[in-house]
Amino acid sequence: MKQFHLIGALVAALALPAMAQSNPKTVPPVEVNVEQVALEASHLRAITALLQAGRIDDMFIATVRREKPTSPGEEEFYAYILTRLSSDVVLAQLAPVYARYVTEKEAGTLSGALLRPANQRALGAQVDAMALSGKAAEQRNAANSAAFATFYRSAEGKRFVELTRLTKTEVNKAMGQWMRGVVEEIMTGPLKVIAARQVSWVEKGMKEEPEQYVPAVTGLGSVDRFSTVLASAVYRNQHASWQLQRDLAPLADAQVLKPENLAQPKTVVRSLAMLDVLDARLESFLSESSANMTQFVAELRAIPMFAQDSGRFTSVLERQMGISVKFAENQRTMVSLMRQVLTFVQQRPGKISAKGSLLMFDNQADVAPYNALVAELKRQMALEESMTSDTQERARRAAEGKF
Predict the structure, then answer these.
(1) pTM of the model
(2) For a disulfide at 129, which of 67, 75, 140, 280, Cβ 3.0-4.6 Å?
């Protein structure tokens, strides 16, 4: 999903007062201890009062309302952000930024100057101009600049203009982070729910048939479509994984590597036939997983806002499906190793016998290659246990919103 381009509107919003005077003297910033700022609420209250006196919050909101989204599918997110945007939000984001450059005492002095009736009238006109664009905005600003002439010639006016320049980058960063946070909040909500359900399912050993999850409706079309597409893809993946686990269960029950079974030629033949079926089932699962991913990406890109850039959200499912695929590939490796063990003993008819839990070889030279196959099989089984633990941890982190 593309980043919102509305953040750039803030540059225009907070730089416009400087248009009235193109060459103000540069006033150095006041160094303020950040830790002290965090502790002194009275300082932040003074800064907040300064921003209100300068109508900074109103200018920002007016400019954002004027801007229009530039990427497909962003319209409803834009409308949603506007429902969350308020003076309180803007002031809360910007006060800490300005506090780095303005002392509590200076904030009071500047507020007093800005609150003079003539300046408030000019600032009100400035806010009105922010709602306009193109030549209309230029004309309104030109007409308004004269009203600010006296103020901009004063020390307070020069300092106010300088502050808009000094804080511009940090202000845009702060508001940009807030906007991204709003989008993240609405987008990651469904992901957290789906991940939490995944945690529960994985912790139960993936042995229960998963249930189809129906995401709650947010009222934002793109979000609702995304949630539905993702939930369906995850369900398909879970259901396929569950079916695979169910189909592999007979392999464990058959105990094909039990010495007494390995020593029985007919049992070995039946075991090899079972492995043939499981091999085909694993191949089918891998093909199904690939088709599921292809379907998910196609459905995701059919949603306008994901049409060009769906990478981040695609990766969420890719990670989950990647784990399932690794499980299947590991199972396939184990099936291959089991086949090698069965073939090994099948090629030595009458030369292998079972004695309790041990497999006895008439030829001592057969012991080492047999043990090597068993050791590799055990290594793959340990790898599967590690993957299960990793899957559980990833699911838990996703449920906490740590994607």
Answers:
(1) 0.62
(2) 140
